[in-house]
Amino acid sequence: MNKTDLRKGMTAKKTLLCSETLENQCIIVSLKIFIFADRLETIVNNKQYNNLKNNQNQMKQDMIVILDLGSHENTVLARAIRALGVYSEIYPHDITVEELKALPNVKGIIINGGPNNVIDGVAIDVNPAIYTLGIPVMAAGHDKATCEVKLAEFADDIEAIKAAVKSFVFDVCKAEANWNMKNFVNDQIELIKRQVGDKKVLLALSGGVDSSVVAALLLKAIGNNLVCVHVNHGLMRKGESEDVVEVFSNQLKANLIYVDVTDRFLNKLAGVEDPEQKRKIIGGEFIRVFEEEARKLNGIDFLGQGTIYPDIVESGTKTAKMVKSHHNVGGLPEDLKFELVEPLRQLFKDEVRACGLELGLPYEMVYRQPFPGPGLGVRCLGAITRDRLEAVRESDAILREEFQIAGLDKKVWQYFTVVPDFKSVGVRDNARSFDWPVIIRAVNTVDAMTATIEPIEWPILMKITDRILKEVKNVNRVCYDMSPKPNATIEWE
Question: pTM of whole model > 0.90?
Answer without folding.
Answer: no
